[in-house]
Design a protein that fits this description.
Elements: H1 4-7, H2 9-48, H3 56-60, E1 78-80, E2 83-86, E3 110-111
Antiparallel strand pairs: 1-2, 2-3
Length: 112
Amino acid sequence: MESYIGKDPVLKELVPATSRVKLLYGRVKTNLRGTRLRAAVKLYQRRHNQLPDNLQDLVNDRIIDEVPIDPFSGKAFRYVDNKIYSIGPDLKDNKAAIKYDRRKSPEGDIIF
C-alpha cells in the first residue's frame, strides 16, 4: 500500500524540506548550547587553573544550572578528553573521534 505522503504531491515536496529545517534547527540549537558550554568550561578553568573532570563539575561550581541536553540524542552533552561534543545528526556516538562536517559527510560528532 502506498503511503499517504506518496499520494499527495504537496506533502511529497514538503516532507523533505521539513526534515532539512529540523536538521538545521537541531544544528543551531546544538551550536548555541555547545558554545555556551565551552564558555562555562573556560570559566571553570580560570577559577580552578584546570579543566573540569566532567560537565557536572560546572553545575557543582554554580557556573551553569544543569548540563544542557544534546538536541540530537535527547541526553546531556558529552565530555571526553576535554572535548565537549554532541553526537550529531547521524545519531552515533563516535567519542569525539570523528568531527562532523556537513560539506564532507553526514557522519561524525559536533565537537566544541
